[in-house]
Structures are given as C-alpha cells and as structure tokens.
Here is the input.
Amino acid sequence: MTQSNNTTPAPCLSQIRDTTKQHLGYRPCLWQLKVARATLEGKDVVCVASTGSGKTLPFWMPLLFRIEGIVVVITPLNLLGTQNKSQLEALGISAIALSSATATAQNFQDIAEGKHRVGCVA
Here is the structure.
C-alpha cells in the first residue's frame, strides 16, 4: 500500500514538463514525468530503466516544486555521485557527493543545516 504524507497537491504532468524544460533545460518523457509526479505526491517510487535512459532526471525534477527537504540519490559508483553533484551545481542546485572519503561530521552537519538540496551517496 502506498501512503502519501505530503499535503501540497502535486502539479500536473504538463506543469512538471514545462518547469523542467525552463529550469533544467531538459524535456522529460512521459515515464520521467510520472515518476516525478508520484514522488511529489509523497509516494515511495522504484524506477527501473536501462543505462543511459534518464533515470536521474526524475530525482531532480521535484526540487523545482518543493523547496524544503533534501533529495538523496544512491548511486553504485562514486563517479556517478560526483557527476550528479557537478551537473546539479551547474544548474544552481547545491549538492554533495558522499562516499567513504567525504562522509565527515562537518558534511553531515552541512546537510542537517540545509546547505545542500541533494546528497549523492555511493
């Protein structure tokens, strides 16, 4: 059973598409829009897609509609976490790549204080 804990209504798919294009420069496809909308509705989401198909974009899209909280993206490789961090920062979104080398008390404190919107964990 899916449980929603978000009281703000999720935007419609066309609004998510247009806002993503305007702010991130990408035009998401239908499955990406549905994943982002489900996330904005407060649902737990599992997304399975092939390599290079654009799985990361639906994690970023909710950042455009919810200014509170942090998104945690778990990646299988440190390199992917670092790439996500770089791409998000190029878009003006504060992010941190966490790995065994960067999992410091100061970085966790920065996250707790809201200095980063995205944590990319490898």
Observations:
- Strands lie at 71-74, 95-98, 118-121.
- The first strand starts at residue 71 and ends at 74.
